[in-house]
Amino acid sequence: MKTIVSAAALLAASFLAVPALAANLVLYTSQPNEDAQATVDGFMAANPDIKVDWVRDGTPKIMAKLQAEIQAGNPVADLLLIADMVTLERLKEDGKLLAYKSPEAAQYDAALYDADGYYYSTKLITTGIMYNTSAAMKPASWKDLTKPEAKGLVTMPSPLASGAALIHAQTLAAVPGLGWDFYKSLAENGAIAAGGNGAVLKSIASGEKAYGMVVDYLPIREKAKGAPVEFVFPSEGVSAVTEPVGILASTKNADAAKKFVDYVLSEKGQEGFLKLGYIPARNGMKLPEGFPARDTIKVLPIKAADALKNTDQDLKTFSGIYGSN
Amino acid sequence: MHGYVRTGNSQPAWLFPFVVITVLILSVLPLARLAMVGIAAFANGGVLTVLGDASLWSATYYTIVTAILGTIISLVIGCLFAFLLTLTDIRGKGLLSFFFVLPMMIPPQVTALAWVQMSGPSSPLLKALSIAPPLGSPQPLYSVGGIALLYGVQHAPLVYLALRAGLMTLPRDGVEAARLSGASSLRVFRDIILPLSLPGIIAGAAISFVSCTGNFGIPAILGIPASIFTLPTLIFTKFSAFTSRTFGDVAVLSAVIAMISVAGLMIQDRALRGRDYRVIGLSGASAAFELGAWRFAFTPLLWAILFFMLAAPFFALVAGALVPAYGVPLTFKTMSLHAFQEILFRQAVTRTAFINSLSLAAATALCLLTVTVLAAYALTRRRDAASRIVSSLIEIPYSLPGIVMAVSFILVLAAPIPFLHISLYGTIWIILIAYLSSFFAVSLKPVVSAFHQLDPALEEAARLSGAGFFRRLFDIIVPLIAPAAGASVILVFLIACNELTISALLWSAGTQTLGVAIYNLDDSGSSDLASALSVLVVLMVVVMMLLLELLAKRLPKGVVRWRN
């Protein structure tokens, strides 16, 4: 008994001696855990004097966490690396971001970053169709998912849990011939929307469902590992998010945070994303294994200002169709 | 008070006020704040929006239905094990008992994850055995039935422990008298044992019901994919769509959970009323029944249940951690240790989570130990209304679901603390305070019962010889209550280590607990990593329980609760 008590006392003493946050940068990201860890490891290898702690959750959830912290007067994050520019545009308008002109921006298409330097895209993540190799139909277009062969076999991420899913819904809703009616006919065909992209991947790879909308890198990467899945870029085109990085105005470590932004935009940082299976946003980079040539991928346009304005309405419309909370 | 000396009431003047202040901070303040926010929401008419929200009512319905079904399942399994292991001469009691209590100590989301890996078209285990269901088969566990089944498995040990305590004190002479008068085993069981064990069964059912209503890990993993929300998971999703109204909404939702739990406990009180069977004579009904040939039916039955409760899910978890990608059948060729490597050597979150969970558990257990020894002294030495009120205030946070306490503490600590201007929200301290509040009662119970067994004469003699309070405390009281105190430390440590409900709402960068880390890994689609981390946690729990088992010989009876 004595040994237990003294061991526990030691534990408690060490616990009291170590502050909970020894890191000097905190990153909030929506990348999957392995990718987030790899990004942070790459940065720390390049900047050994800076430690980075990170938190991963779906974009809407991570934003909720941030909002709660801001309300409590204690925002923990220094940096955001989350799904889409629309969310960061909103933060910029609320005055929550810090402007920084990165020298690396010269290598990027002007549409991919904020002219005032509030946020920068880091990669291109498209949303297309993933299917299980044992599925009867090989879908080639979004419309195929409304066919009787796919009845009750379609799943998609919920915009309430995934930033990419929200942008995807807003993009398709603006496409003539698809629109919200497409989402309605999907729902009538027994499609479900729950959880994030990770849940869709699991559900299709496991054969609970046969077809799903999902971000490109997950199925392409899993296929390479031997999972029974395929990914297609539908004929109507794909939606895209660009996973921008931004610095919070409340940061106490602006210099270190700027270094992080430079790193993810630099050739080295972009190489890292390429290795993980993402399409890098920087000009003149290769595409990852398993992707078609870049000029064959048709990216559907989205008006960021409209998307921002309509977000709440679009979420309501989506929830109305899919009855999720 | 003149001319009347309370025996043994020689506590220093600061002691009782200290206990009262602690209880005010840990119980009264957060719950009062929750009530205030809830009432404010009522006053602003916001409550009508919440109450008019269909999601609230469907979540309430699902919470109650899953809790009732789960309680029934846990009663069936728990009672079967309790009766067979306490009253019969079945073989291997010690082992069966040890294994049966294990699920209680394993975090609920690990249990859920393991069962998901075990069933459905994706199961690496079923694929390896080539008996997986065909493409497009829904995962059967993503349903009300699935949630209830896992509630039953998770909480059956609670029923077992509650009932077993009662069965241990059954009067042996009643049974023997009935036997001598020629009653059959069945008759004895129906007319003597069953009525006498009802209070234990009812108590077990109430504990199980309250635990089900507050459970987060199981409905989060099994319910959310099927859009089945219970109140705790609804609160969680409210927080992930944060608006200015969130705090008010969540306060109202918490109040609904609290009401359901309290209703459950009140039904228990009603059921127990008028069932005060004082028994006389020798107690200890151990092995009142000889199974005879029935042994060949019951022994395999119990082991089969344990196999499905423990072994199969655990192997599924291991299989899920060894597959190279989701949906690949597991063979010796495809097997990979990638997930374990990633978890052990690359993911910073693993180390953070282990350190956080272990140090939170240790800090909670030790802080509570200090407070409970003083509190138990104060409460057992003063036998007045004030001390009774304090005792029940300590009980309340434990009987409410963890998520309600977490919400209360967010409300209290969201704004910076006045005068100090520091905000605890988003730090590890808010989790620690919520743990202290929730587990205070767990830690207090064994210590109070030890104090009740102390002979006041010992302390009295020391006081007459002029020993001061601390001198008496350290030289006389502490050595005598040490065994019970040790038990309370271990119990709190185990419970806090595996906690998810509270930390799911309170975690932030660098303060992830093990429960949060596992849930988050699974949520991001890395179920192989989630499984690998779960395997490590299960091994840790088994090692801790084995340590307890080794210590059991040196601890007083009744500390390690699954032993005879």
UniProtKB/TrEMBL annotation, chain A:
| TM regions (residue ranges) | none
Q: Which organism is it from?
A: Rhizobium acidisoli
Q: What name does the UniProt record give this protein? A: Extracellular solute-binding protein
Where does the UniProt annotation place the signal sequence? 1-22
What PANTHER family is this protein classified in? ABC TRANSPORTER SUBSTRATE-BINDING PROTEIN (PTHR30006:SF2), THIAMINE-BINDING PERIPLASMIC PROTEIN-RELATED (PTHR30006)
Lineage start: Bacteria, Pseudomonadati, Pseudomonadota, Alphaproteobacteria, Hyphomicrobiales
Q: Which UniProt keywords apply?
A: Iron, Metal-binding, Periplasm, Signal
Locate the residues binding Fe cation.
Answer: Y217
Which GO-annotated molecular functions does the record name? metal ion binding; thiamine binding; thiamine pyrophosphate binding
Q: Which GO terms describe its biological process?
A: thiamine transport
The protein's matches in CDD domains, at most eight in alphabetical order, are given as: PBP2_Fbp_like_2
Cellular component GO terms held in the UniProt record: outer membrane-bounded periplasmic space
Automatic annotation (TrEMBL), chain B:
What is the superkingdom listed in this entry's lineage?
Bacteria
- Domain ABC transmembrane type-1, by residue range, is 60-268, 354-548
Alphabetized, the UniProt keywords read: Cell inner membrane, Cell membrane, Membrane, Transmembrane, Transmembrane helix, Transport
UniProt-listed PROSITE patterns = ABC_TM1
- GO biological process annotations for this chain's record? transmembrane transport
Gene3D superfamilies on file: MetI-like
User: Per the record, what is one GO cellular component?
Assistant: plasma membrane
List membrane-spanning regions.
12-32, 64-87, 94-116, 141-163, 192-210, 216-235, 247-267, 305-327, 354-379, 400-420, 426-444, 473-496, 529-552
Report the membrane topology from the UniProt record.
Multi-pass membrane protein
Name under which the protein is recorded: Iron ABC transporter permease
Q: Which organism is it from?
A: Rhizobium acidisoli
